[in-house]
Each structure stands twice: as structure tokens, then as C-alpha cells.
Amino acid sequence: MTAASATGAPVVANRGAITACVILAVIMQALDTTIANVALPYIQGSVSASADQINWVLTSYIVAAAVMTPPSGYLANRFGRKRILLVAITGFVVASVLCGFAQSLPQIVGFRLLQGLFGAALVPLSQSILLDIYSVEERGSAMALFGVSVMVGPVLGPVIGGWLTENVSWRWVFYINVPIGMLAFAGVSMFVQETKLDLKARLDWLGFGMLSLAIASLQMFLDRGEQLNWFSSAEIIVEALVCASAFYIFIVHTFTARDTFVNPRLFLDRNFAVGMIFIFIIGITYLASLALMTPYLQTLMGYPVVTAGIVMGPRGLGTMACMFLVGRLVGKVDTRWLLFIGLAITAWAMYDMTGWTPDVSQWTIISTGFIQGAGLGFLFVPLTTITFATLAPERRSEGTGLYNLSRNIGSSVGISVVTALLTQNQQINHANIATYVTPYNPAFADPAISQALSPYTAAGRAALDGLVTLQATIISYVDDFKLMMVLSLAAIPLVLLLRKPGTPAKVDHSAVME
């Protein structure tokens, strides 16, 4: 069994192997959040789906993962953390293979839903294991490694997915999980010890059901709102009402019933409550910016998919470098200063992106991306550390589940919102710019312009419309970058609400093998 050293640090045999196998599980799950994106046109052709229908391949996975993240703590307590982690890895790999075998849209959507259900537990349970096997002084470095596995996945996903799709087949974006999953399963089976079971643990089915319904209807509302013109559609109205009603019932039930699905006492810990808001904002700004960058590079700048992924790669390098650096600073420098620096760097990167046009150089894209990634590196490690620093150890599994739920919802909401705003602002900007395009504009006196962009010919009007659309799209991207910059700046006051942790509570290290 494990023991404690004179310094209070846990003595854990095979700690490196345990760390490696749980990190593999996290990487496998993190890659699948974005690896299928670039393959969507190929999947669409294979299963004969429309552009609207193929989006379910993404939304089904996000919704399922978000819904099943919170109960991971209950499942770990009731059936054992090791057992649930092994089931999650196995189910995720099997569902990945089934996605690769899928021959129709209902099949691949159903299998992606299954993949999200199993994959939801991988991140919170892996994080909980790492928190248990490292001492408080060592958790900064451990969370740095964990953060790299979580946050670099969305960067590597499009690169790996694009290469596999272009050189092999779109089905291999799912098959790639098989070798990773086998290694993770073997490592967890050999080195991780089972936790004590709580046979009296019960799941609050009403709370779980209402929260699940609220999340699912919210995602549907955000994903389909722009397509259906928001509240002019009966479907959108119904989804909004269902979301609001389910969330209201969930809140009332949580604060009036006993042994509820979400323990409201968790939020009495100020650091945990503030951390939940913080990670939600980080989910919006980081993954939403990635969702914008891919079409920006491919559509506006004409980059091939693999080239776009390579240009975005330094963003992940900046994250990794600063995560390891900050991991060593945690405990030596006030965590709140590290968070302030991270938010300031992120806001500056977004400010720089508001000046971009399709003529921006590759070096500018690479350097700004590296800086933005560095900002995330300053945020993720200290935020994770300070969020759980004052939380009781027995509530840590439940806390990590809610923490990752907040990050997932922030990511999905951020992607949906910036995408909807991009489409809406394109139409508004197009109309505004078009008001200045008249046959009496002095610019048409130039023979070269009047010949190529003549408003009196069909070809000229088409060229003018294309030019206006391009400018409207550029401005729309700038508006989205401004929004994320404002969100980063608005989060800075939250740093003042965090308190420096005192003497940490003892941690139960019985989750690992001797």
C-alpha cells in the first residue's frame, strides 16, 4: 500500500506508469473532440447526409459527454474508480470502432453518442487519480502534464484527422483510438488499485434527468437556432422552454431535497465556485477561437487543411511550454498573479487578432497563436490547483466531474455562439457595406475598376457581391475576436475573489497500487 514520507508526500510505487496510462486515456478522449471535424465532408458523402444532418456527428458527442460528466463521481464511489475507468476505456474504444464501421447517418450518430457517454468519465477520473497520487507541492507539475493532455488534443486533432483523411480514410480518425485505448487499459489494469466502494451511494435520478435535459436542449437550441431563425421557429421555442423549465426544476430540487445529484455545499467553497466560472470562460475563449481559426485559414486564406493545422500547431507548443513552467511556479508565486498574467496575455492575443486580414503573414499567425497558447498555460495549471486546494478530499471526485462539465459546456456554448454570431454578422455587415455600392460612386470613374466591377453587368455585379461578402466576413471574424477579448478582460476581477489556500487537507491515497 502507499505510505507518506516525512514531508507528507505520498509514496506511490509505479507512479510514473500510473501517470502515463491515465494521461493516455485523457489524450484519447481529448483528440476526439476535434479530430472528426476535418473529416465531416468525407463522412457526409459516405452516409449520404445533408450539411445540417452531418452536424449531429459533432453535437451528439458533445451533448453525451457533457451529460455524463457529472455522474462520474457517483459511479466511481458506487462501483469503484478503477472499474469505472476500465469500463469507460473499453466502451470508448468499442464505440470508436463502430463509428469507423458505420454505413449510415443514424449509425454513426448513435455510435458517436455512445462514444461520448463512455468518454465523459475519462477526464474527471484520470484527474482525480493524479490529484491523489501527488502531494500538494507536486500537484502543480502533475496538473501541468494533465493540462497538456487535455488542451493540446484540440490542436493536434485537426492535424492528425486531416492527415489520416487525406492519406488513408476518414474511418481511421476513429480507428486510431484502438492502440491508444489498449495501452491505457493495460496500464490501468496493472498499476491502479481499486478504491473503497460506497454501497450506500445513490444517484439522484430527478436531478440527473433534469440537468441532462437542460444541457441537451440548450445544445440543440444553440446549434439549430441560426439555421431556423431563432424564435421564429416553433422548434427553437420548444427547446428554449424545455431548457428553462428543466433547469428551474433542477435548481429547486437541488436546494430543497436531500442527497441531490449536485451537492450545493460544494459551492460554499469559494475557490471551487469561482473556479467553475473561470473554467467556463476559458472553455469559451480557447476552443471557440480554434473553431474560428480553422475556417479562417482554409476559407479566407486558402490554406490546405494539413497546412492550416501545422500553422496552428505552435499554439499547442506555447501551452505546453508555459504549463510546465507554471507548474514549477505554483506554490512559489501567488496563484492569483499567475491567473492575472494568463488572462492579460490571452486578451492581448485576441486584441492582436482583431487587426488581422487574409493578408496576414504566417509568422504573425504562428507568433500570436504561440502567445495565446502561453496565456492558456498560465491559466489552466494554477486554476486547477487553486480550485481544488480547499475542497475536502471526499468531495473531490464529484468536484472534478462538475469542473469538467463546466469546461465542456463552456466549449460547446462558445463554439455555437461565435459560429452563430459569425453568420449573423456576415449578413448585417454585408447589408451595411452594400449601401455604399452605387453606380454613382466616384471609384467607378477608374476604367480598371469599372471594367472588372461594373454594376451594369451581371459579371460585374457578381464580382462586387463577392468582394462585399469577403469584407463582411473579415469584419465578422474581427467582431468575434473582440468578443473573446472582452470576455478575457471581464474575467480578471474574478481573480480578486480567489483566496490563498491555507494548510491543505489530508488526501486519501488508497487509490493506487503499492
Task: Describe it.
With 514 residues, the protein is mainly alpha-helical. The chain has 3 domains: 14-199, Up-down Bundle (Growth Hormone, Chain: A), CATH 1.20.1250.20; 204-260; 262-500, Growth Hormone, Chain: A. It has helices at residues 15-31, 40-47, 51-54, 56-68, 72-79, 81-101, 105-119, 122-133, 139-151, 153-167, 172-175, 177-191, 205-225, 234-256, 270-300, 305-329, 335-353, 362-389, 396-434, 447-452, 458-490, and strands spanning 3-4, 10-11. A two-stranded antiparallel sheet has the order 1-2. Helix 15 packs antiparallel against helix 18 (362-389) and helix 17 (335-353) packs antiparallel against helix 21. It is globular and about 80 Å long. Residues 1-9 and 503-514 have low confidence and may be disordered.
Topology of this structure?
Elements: E1 3-4, E2 10-11, H1 15-31, H2 40-47, H3 51-54, H4 56-68, H5 72-79, H6 81-101, H7 105-119, H8 122-133, H9 139-151, H10 153-167, H11 172-175, H12 177-191, H13 205-225, H14 234-256, H15 270-300, H16 305-329, H17 335-353, H18 362-389, H19 396-434, H20 447-452, H21 458-490
Antiparallel strand pairs: 1-2
Helix pairs in contact: 1-8, 1-9, 1-10, 1-12, 4-7, 4-13, 4-19, 5-6, 5-19, 6-7, 6-12, 8-9, 8-19, 9-16, 9-18, 10-16, 13-14, 13-19, 15-16, 15-18, 15-19, 15-21, 16-18, 17-18, 17-21, 19-21
